[in-house]
Design brief:
Elements lengths: L2 H16 L5 H8 L3 E6 L2 E5 L3 H9 L1 H11 L5 E5 L38 H12 L8 E5 L5 H15 L5 E5 H13 L8 H10 L3 E5 L8 H16 L3 E6 L11 H8 L2 E5 L4 H14 L6 H8 L6 H18 L5 H13 L7 H12 L3 H4 L6 H17 L4 H7 L5 H14 L4 H15 L2
Length: about 450
Amino acid sequence: MSEKTQFDLIWGKIRERLEKLVTYITYETYVMSLEPVDIVNKKLVLRAASEMGASVIMRNADKMKKAIAQADVGLIDFVVFVEGSSAFPLEEIPDAFEEIRVEPDKRFTFDSFVVGVSNKFVYAAAKSVAEAPGENFNPLYIYGGTGLGKTHLLQAIANEIAEKRPSLKVLYTTSEKYLNEYVDSMYARKGEGREADARFRSRYRNVDVLLIDDIQFWAGKHGVQEAFFHTFNELFSQNKQIVITSDCPAKDLTTLEERLRTRFEGGLIADIQPPDDETKIAILKKKALEKGYVLPEEVLAFLVKNSDNNVRTLEGRLNTVIFASKLHEEPVSLQLAATALQEAINTEPEEVTPDAIIRATCTHFGITQQALLGKNKKQELVRARQICAYLMCDMLSIPLVNVGQEMNGLHYSTVIYARDKIKSLLPVNDKIAKDVSDIRSVVLKQ
């Protein structure tokens, strides 16, 4: 299905709801003449035939947004423009960092978190904070090893508050994004950039709940620590809730300034311990059920045996077995699981590198590397460029700045935009989903 068809399909669902909200004349004269042309930052971009038509649509903006929400197509807003119009221009959104947000994953809730002996304390602390932000345990500092559920709990807090107390302003972000925005605000010197520092401060200080993931990445970066120190004080003085995650206790963050460490230690510090075998099995059962599978107890015990403490690795073993079951069209058994895992161990894929992703993208789209990494704004090249950037972000554990460098100097905000753009299109655009899947398979040689 082409992008054009996908946009029309989405717009059609919205239009059905909108028809019941506006007058017959407005609908037939102005709504029906709108043309969907793109999706940007979860906003549907619509082309109007005239400035009068665009004006009428904007006067009905609340009804448009209501129709978008009712259609449940994964969008949050709309943009309307008129070709060649100065009153309704199509402005570039990618580089406006206010538009680039890290949205909590709706799948990460307290209900979907598997509670065991190793994590029941931190679970209870996170739940308490979500129920009474700013009143209990402020700040809450969660730490633990990779893949134990820190990010899950952080996003569960954000999702719980958003659902139960929608009047509160909740901001979830990562330490990397906070750092990138800080750098952007410091070095922007022209046009709107003169106000970047003020906008940066306002964005993080005018919230009721601030959640930041992986604080340890600020080690040795004194400028961003200074900025967060003042943000922390401002929020704390107003009883605004702060939640932070890290891979180690606050006292071990020796490269962070002492005044930050002491503030972290002044709240509640909760650690997530590695799960025991019973919890691992419970996690596998839940993950398998989410995928529509019920695994025999002996298979669950086998997957847990000799596994490390990283829940993501454990889920990877489960995915390997489920894939083998689908591939061979056999029910999951102990023999199937053993064979699948042994084959996975014996298969030694080449290391995924930026060059490998770039080559695979070029081959898939039939373009040269020079064209992919160049500045040509042809739609097909821009889309290939965005998919390449998305795959680098998704498949490589490298900073966004490094992704930009690999992509011939793309600004990190453009990388974020490309990543989020493709991510938003994957559920609604079959062609892009297939492009991403095919390129990924070539890179992994599956």
